[in-house]
Write a structure and sequence with these properties.
Largest sheet: 7 strands, parallel
Helix content: 25-40%
Shape: elongated
Strand content: 15-25%
CATH superfamily of the largest domain: Tandem AAA-ATPase domain
CATH topology of the largest domain: Rossmann fold
Strand order of the largest sheet: 11-12-10-13-16-9-17
Oligomer: single chain
CATH architecture of the largest domain: 3-Layer(aba) Sandwich
CATH class of the largest domain: Alpha Beta
């Protein structure tokens, strides 16, 4: 089958109603017919015809680029013209492989509309009920997503993040994603996301920055994993980040991005400053931490400010009503995590106090350590904290 070059590249000729390319009669030149041999540059589409007697016809057409044209054709021109297709011609003898490929691509593109748990069924995971509810009942419904996932350790927060990413990819809502986590977890994150979800994340560190073609690997790579301290301590890397945009940023062990009030001002750590930067670079922002609250409400609200600056603006006052975080956060403890059959996921935890007597040496050590901790903490508090306003913790 001969092809011609069209405005969109090489286009195969369409077989006609007789099952192949065929010669054309002047009488068959009707509106909508695609004919080869009228112009040397390629086939034309007939727009109108005007007969001059019985052996000649003036044909008005559009060429392959859409430009208008006309020619006077005679019976002897029939030998060089071929029908390629027409408005009323339908053939079912094309290559079925291409039709199946196009149909499968369309099915995959629209699959999430018909499969409520698409990511679950296309990933190598068997999620628990609390993981499914976190992704499909809490996070996916939020557009944009600004959320703190604060389930107890062992709940599988990495699995939940991977399911979220897979669903957003299926919906066409995720192309560029960054995972920020402590340095000891980067390889674990990379392995989990690839082995369970087939998401090819790349670790970006000093070596990748030096080897990048443009000098900015964050602009070159769509799926990256970064070390928290590498980003927070390197101002040059942060300058690279400022020129990028992301669909989703996930921060693991997010409680490390802490801040506190000191002397009436916010004492921002370098990690907290990184959190403020990341929050402004992405549409979806997911924080994950099993210990988001250190017991100080004002510090917790500073932490939540990374998700919603308007709601948590200003210093928390003890007598003021606490801002609700129910729409921004989910926390489940181990006692609440269950399997599909209703049995508990973790064994029961029983806490009770056991009394015992210290020897004289143990009692002396206990008193000296207690005195040291009390004294040094008081000195640190008097000095304005263990870190200055721009220090890291």
């Amino acid at each position: 089958m001969v092809a011609y070059e069209g405005p969109w590249g090489t286009i195969p000729k369409v077989k006609g109603i007789a099952g192949g390319e065929r010669l054309v009669k002047l009488e068959e030149l009707v509106k909508g017919t695609v004919v080869d041999g009228v112009e040397p540059d390629g086939p034309v589409t007939v727009v109108n015809v005007e007969w001059n007697g019985t052996d000649s016809v003036e044909v008005f057409y559009k060429d392959v680029s859409g430009g208008p044209g006309s020619q006077l054709l005679y019976r002897f021109n029939e030998a060089r013209m071929k029908i390629l297709g027409g408005a009323e011609e339908w053939a079912f003898d094309g290559d079925g492989r291409f039709f199946r490929l196009a149909a499968e691509a369309k099915r995959i593109k629209m699959a999430y509309l018909f499969d409520a748990l698409l990511a679950v069924h296309t990933s190598l995971v068997d999620p628990y009920p609390h993981q499914i509810s976190a992704v499909y009942e809490r996070m996916l419904r939020k557009q944009p997503l600004r959320f703190l996932l604060a389930d107890d350790p062992g709940a599988g927060k990495t699995i939940m993040a991977g399911l979220l990413m897979k669903e957003l990819v299926a919906r066409g809502d995720l192309e560029r994603c960054m995972v920020v986590c402590p340095g000891s977890l980067v390889e674990q994150w990379q392995d989990e996301l690839w082995q369970k979800f087939m998401l090819p994340f790349e670790i970006v560190a000093r070596e990748q920055i030096e080897a990048s073609r443009t000098g900015n690997p964050f602009a070159e790579t769509n799926l990256v994993i970064c070390r928290l301290d590498h980003l927070s301590r390197n101002e040059g890397v942060q300058e690279m980040l400022k020129g990028t945009e992301w669909d989703l940023i996930v921060v693991d062990e997010a409680h490390k991005m802490s801040a506190s009030f000191s002397g009436g001002e916010i004492n921002r750590t370098k990690r907290y400053g990184l959190g403020e930067l990341l929050s402004g670079l992405t549409r979806h922002f997911l924080l994950m931490s099993a210990t988001p609250h250190n017991g100080k409400e004002e510090d917790f609200q500073l932490f939540m400010r990374l998700l919603d600056q308007d709601r948590f603006e200003g210093r928390f006052r003890q007598r003021a009503r606490r801002a609700s975080v129910s729409d921004l956060m989910r926390r489940m403890i181990k006692e609440d995590l269950r399997k599909f059959d209703g049995t508990k996921l973790f064994p029961e935890r029983y806490a009770h106090t056991v009394g015992y007597n210290l020897s004289s040496d143990e009692a002396n050590l206990y008193e000296e350590v207690t005195d040291y901790v009390r004294r040094e903490f008081n000195r640190a508090e008097a000095a304005g904290g263990a870190c200055g306003p721009s220090g890291s913790r």
